[in-house]
């Protein structure tokens, strides 16, 4: 981490928040989180008031999440083009991560993998050079599944009826 700060202009050049104060808060938030990547927002920010500022900004950015992701992807592609001009191969690595929230009741949260677990699947694609230097995120998508009603009793009944039919025709 060079200098323990991140150049937000480099990564979020095309992000427009239409408010200089929010743009400064965004830069401060990114630097705070960059300095403590493994910490919670509360621990990284150092105080409840700073954490509250970050949460408010994140809530505001949720409405603009597509703009934030697009800004990151554009900056990543700019770096990828520059690296490819230097005859470096660019790898686009995809991953799907399943995040489980267990059986917690989280408003608006769907299910992942099966209908009994709350959570989401996160599909990400990052660009790296062949030598392993990360250039950034190119795409990220989250998805959940609607909870499906159990058809177990119906399936058991259908199998029993099929079994009876076979017995009638066989013997």
The computed structural class is alpha+beta
Helicity level, as a percent range?
A: 40-55%
Number of strands: 3
N-to-C SSE string, H for helix and E for strand: HHHHHEEEH
Computed CA radius of gyration, to the nearest angstrom: 24 Å
Q: What global shape is seen?
A: extended
Mean pLDDT across the residues is 80
- How would you write the strand order of the largest sheet? 1-2-3
β-strand amount:
15-25%
Main beta sheet strand tally, sense and closure = 3 strands, antiparallel
Distance between the termini: 77 Å
Helices and strands, with pairings:
Elements lengths: L7 H4 L8 H16 L5 H5 L2 H15 L2 H21 L4 E13 L15 E12 L4 E10 L8 H19 L1
Antiparallel strand pairs: 1-2, 2-3
Explain what the structure shows:
The chain is an alpha+beta fold. It is built from six helices and three strands, in the order αααααβββα. A three-stranded antiparallel β-sheet has the order 1-2-3. A hairpin with a 4-residue loop joins strand 2 (118-129) and strand 3 (134-143). The protein is extended.
Key phrases:
47% helix; 3-stranded antiparallel sheet; single chain; 171 residues; alpha+beta; 3 strands; disordered C terminus
Brief synopsis:
This protein is α+β, with helices and mostly antiparallel strands. The chain has helices spanning 8-11, 20-35, 41-45, 48-62, 65-85, 152-170; strands at residues 90-102, 118-129, 134-143. The relative contact order is 0.10.
